[in-house]
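> forwarded from #structure-qc
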């Protein structure tokens, strides 16, 4: 209301003028339901809802980069035509407990129908351990992760990095990401390496991405990606080159991420870690607490 062409009452939430970063606790997709209609959002997290806020950034990125989004029983599916090898960008994401036969049928229909060579399902319901075990019994690899969070901002500032950390352009990390992908996936094809590297390069088209690195003699020794969405930041892919480990470079990159998030106005920084891997404890010693968990089930399908 206010301008002559406008209706007398608000018909959709509007914000006039700038919004403080700290006022935005999540940037949620407003999608039509399975029947094509739009319903009021009911799962908007408030400032104190750490699990709710922590969940959204990685899935928001996948949703924004998706070439196709479909509702499925208990959740949604994303497909990205340009990166069919990416599990994160071609998967089902389920918030409810769904019978295994149902989820597998929908995965075959959507992922198989799109020519994707894997089946990937993320189970976000806290009681999904049984479903994950059942999928493991059917040949799926199960990656159980914890989502970890740490407050940022006044009263929660991290120590300054001991080493020089610089913000770099995404393209400067292309070779770094490609080598990391090959190192962590022994049998990966050259095409898959290119796809998984490219998906990182284009993330900045849909979200505010920052890339931080420590260089030694001009070469990248450690690096990480930082996604900023309103007042919440997501740290992804902190890694140190094997030849430069145990020198504090990963610590420096983490502190650089925390400082960058704080400078951007974020009051919450989140990340995830495999339950069975050592970074989980490493992050815990640096102030991150576990706020949620999930299971990702992956099965490669023979051509």
């Amino acid at each position: 209301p206010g301008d002559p062409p406008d209706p007398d009452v608000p018909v959709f939430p509007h914000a006039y003028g700038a919004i403080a970063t700290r006022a935005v606790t999540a940037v949620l997709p407003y999608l039509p339901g399975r029947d094509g209609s739009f319903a009021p959002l009911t799962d908007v997290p408030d400032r104190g809802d750490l699990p709710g806020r922590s969940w959204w950034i990685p899935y928001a990125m996948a949703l924004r980069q998706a070439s196709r989004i479909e509702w499925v029983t208990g959740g949604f599916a994303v497909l990205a035509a340009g990166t069919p090898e990416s599990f994160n960008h071609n998967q089902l994401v389920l918030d409810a407990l769904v019978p295994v036969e149902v989820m597998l049928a929908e995965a075959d229909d959507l992922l198989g129908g799109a020519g994707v060579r894997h089946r990937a399902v993320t189970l976000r319901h806290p009681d999904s351990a049984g479903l994950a075990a059942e999928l493991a019994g059917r040949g799926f690899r199960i990656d159980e992760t914890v989502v970890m969070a740490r407050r940022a901002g006044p009263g929660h500032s991290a120590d300054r990095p001991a080493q020089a950390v610089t913000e770099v352009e995404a393209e400067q990390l292309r070779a770094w990401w490609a080598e990391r992908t090959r190192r962590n996936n022994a049998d990966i094809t050259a095409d898959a390496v290119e796809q998984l590297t490219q998906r990182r390069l284009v993330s900045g088209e849909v979200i505010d991405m920052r890339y931080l690195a420590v260089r030694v003699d001009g070469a990248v020794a450690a690096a990480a990606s930082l996604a900023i969405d309103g007042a919440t930041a997501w740290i992804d892919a902190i890694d140190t080159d094997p030849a430069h480990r145990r020198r504090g470079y990963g610590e420096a990159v983490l502190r650089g991420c925390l400082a960058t998030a704080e400078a951007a106005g974020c009051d919450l920084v989140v990340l995830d870690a495999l339950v069975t891997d050592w970074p989980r404890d490493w992050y815990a010693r640096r102030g991150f607490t576990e706020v949620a968990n999930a299971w990702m089930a992956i099965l490669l399908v023979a051509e």
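QC bot note: The helical segments are 50-65, 100-113, 129-137, 174-184, 190-201, 249-263, 279-284. The radius of gyration is 20 Å.
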